[in-house]
C-alpha cells in the first residue's frame, strides 16, 4: 500500500485518538517502526497488520473507523488539499458525483505512483445513484462512504448513503439525493489563498 494512504490513516488516528494510541497500535502491529513515510510503499501484510491492530487497540469495527477517516479526509483542515482536489470535480454535488470516475486518474496526476481502485458512477434515476468501488484497497468503499457523506455536507446537500453489498467483487454504495441546498455549504474558492 502506498505510504501516503498509511500516512493518512496515521494522521486520522493521531488527530482523533491521540499520538499515544497511534504508538500503541504500531507496537501491537509489531512492524518495528512507529511512523509511515508518505512517499514509500509498504507491503499489504504491513498495512493489514496495522489495520488489524487499529481495530484491536481502538475497540471499534474497522469499517466504521474507515468511514470516519473518509469524513476526516474532507473535513479536517490538516488535509485541505484533498478537499480542494475533490471540489474541483464540480460546482454541485451531482457534478462532483459524476467526476468520481476520474478520481483515480486525478490522484495519479498529483502522485504518479498512487494507484486507487476504479470508481464507476451509475445513475439509476434522477437523484438516485450507485457508486461501484472496484477491489484492490482494503476498506476503500468504507472510506468512500465517509468522503461522500462529508462532501454532501460540504455542498450543503442532504443525502442518504447505504452499502449495497458486493457485485462481481466490487463494493456498491447507494446514493440518494434527498434535497439540494438543504443547508449552507462550506465556502470554496478556485484560487488557493496563502497567509
Automatic annotation (TrEMBL):
Residues 2-156 form the Heme NO-binding domain. One of its GO terms (molecular function) is heme binding. InterPro entries: H-NOX_domain_sf, Heme_NO-bd, NO_sig/Golgi_transp_ligand-bd. Pfam families: HNOB (PF07700). It comes from the Bacteria. This is Heme NO-binding domain-containing protein.
Amino acid at each position: 500500500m502506498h505510504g501516503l494512504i498509511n500516512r493518512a490513516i496515521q494522521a486520522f488516528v493521531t488527530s482523533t485518538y491521540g499520538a499515544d494510541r497511534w504508538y500503541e497500535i504500531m507496537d501491537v502491529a509489531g512492524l518495528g517502526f512507529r511512523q509511515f513515510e508518505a512517499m514509500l510503499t509498504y507491503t499489504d501484510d504491513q498495512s493489514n497488520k496495522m489495520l488489524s491492530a487499529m481495530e484491536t487497540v481502538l475497540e471499534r469495527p474497522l469499517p466504521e473507523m474507515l468511514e470516519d477517516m473518509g469524513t476526516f479526509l474532507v473535513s479536517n483542515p490538516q488535509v485541505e488539499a484533498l478537499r480542494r482536489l475533490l471540489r474541483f470535480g464540480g460546482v454541485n454535488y451531482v457534478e462532483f458525483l459524476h467526476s468520481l470516475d476520474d478520481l483515480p486518474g486525478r490522484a495519479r496526476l498529483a502522485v504518479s505512483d498512487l494507484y486507487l481502485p476504479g470508481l464507476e458512477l451509475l445513475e439509476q434515476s434522477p437523484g438516485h445513484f450507485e457508486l461501484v468501488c472496484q477491489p484492490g484497497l482494503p476498506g476503500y468503499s468504507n472510506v468512500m462512504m465517509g468522503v461522500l457523506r462529508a462532501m454532501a455536507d460540504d455542498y450543503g446537500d442532504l443525502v442518504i448513503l447505504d452499502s449495497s453489498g458486493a457485485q462481481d467483487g466490487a463494493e456498491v454504495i447507494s446514493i440518494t439525493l434527498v434535497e439540494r441546498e438543504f443547508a449552507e455549504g462550506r465556502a470554496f474558492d478556485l484560487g488557493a489563498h496563502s497567509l
